[in-house]
Design goal:
This protein has 275 residues and is an alpha+beta fold. The protein folds into 2 domains: 64 residues, Winged helix-like DNA-binding domain superfamily/Winged helix DNA-binding domain (Arc Repressor Mutant, subunit A), CATH 1.10.10; 170 residues, GAF domain (Beta-Lactamase). The chain is 51% helix and 19% strand. The chain has 11 helices and 9 strands. A hairpin with a 6-residue loop joins β7 and β8. α6 packs antiparallel against α11. It is globular and about 55 Å long. The protein starts with a helix and ends in an 8-residue tail after the last helix.
Length: 275
């Protein structure tokens, strides 16, 4: 028998597929331009944007002019280059203001980063597409891994990816297809990764010891915004050392406890089979 939860998840997947199929090319191109400008440290010219996105210059110019008119992109008439405009910040600020996760997660991230000398992140999960960093806390140690709000990563990579595979409602075929596209410093085999996903499901959190980035340990614990689906994760990133490895069990416990607390705050008590 199909449960209400599974019917809701199936409807969400069907809607996402319908949106993907019907998505207007202009919207896709505008989003691609915004992402490209957001990743660039310097303004970009028309030819560079067109080349990077595989578009003809006239199409790129049409999209850029529309984005400039909407105050999402700025154009420098002297250099003939484009960059993000402040309108993007307005959109981001509205999203952050209505997202309780960020406000609730930040104190927990601050405590964990200071107590364990790690970089602590709060990430938003966008299905199997990607994860986005929405909250950051760093201990101040110069040797910690740097991360920025807005950074995007493949959804199934590293420790967070194991949480998504373990607790998300995704088929084995979907997960294998995503796994085959990932790039690791020290890649696990598919069978090793599946075993790690199973272990994540049992213990409630995931650990990546040097697979994603050599010499770096990543711990992730899932957070639910509703009972229907996994929405966020708390992540701790640490550059390896004997002292830090010795404190790994305590870090795992603290991260899992914080994730459970956030889940309870966001959607009420989470059942023990998810803990």
């Amino acid at each position: 028998m199909t449960t209400p939860k599974r019917r809701q998840q199936r409807r969400a997947r069907d809607l996402a597929k319908a949106v993907e199929v019907s998505k207007a090319p202009a919207i896709s191109r505008a989003a691609a331009v915004l992402r490209l400008l957001g990743k660039s440290d310097t303004p970009l010219g028309l030819q560079t944007i067109a080349r990077e996105l595989g578009l003809v210059p006239s199409t790129s110019l049409y999209v850029l002019r529309a984005l400039v008119a909407e105050e999402l992109v700025a154009f420098d008439a002297d250099t003939k280059r484009y960059s993000l405009e402040a309108g993007v910040l307005t959109l981001a600020r509205h999203w952050l203001r209505r997202n309780r996760f960020n406000d609730l997660a930040q104190p927990a991230l601050d405590r964990i980063s200071q107590a364990f000398d790690v970089t602590a992140l709060g990430v938003h999960i966008v299905g199997l597409d990607h994860i986005v960093v929405v909250a950051v806390s760093q201990s101040g140690n110069n040797f910690q891994v740097s991360a920025q709000i807005g950074s995007r990563f493949p959804a199934t990579i590293s420790a967070t990816g194991r949480c998504i595979a373990a607790f998300g409602d995704h088929s084995e075929a979907e997960l294998e297809a995503r796994f085959n596209t990932l790039r690791w410093d020290e890649p696990p085999t598919l069978e090793e990764w599946k075993a790690q996903v199973a272990r994540t499901r049992e213990q409630g959190f995931a650990v990546d010891e040097g697979n994603y980035i050599s010499g770096v340990t990543v711990v992730a614990a899932p957070v639910w915004k509703s009972r229907a689906s996994l929405s966020h994760a708390l992540v701790a990133i640490s550059i390896g050392s004997e002292r830090k490895r010795a404190r790994l069990p305590a870090l795992q416990k603290a991260l899992l406890s914080a994730a459970k607390m956030l889940s309870n705050q966001l959607c009420g008590e989470i059942s023990e089979d998810r803990s």
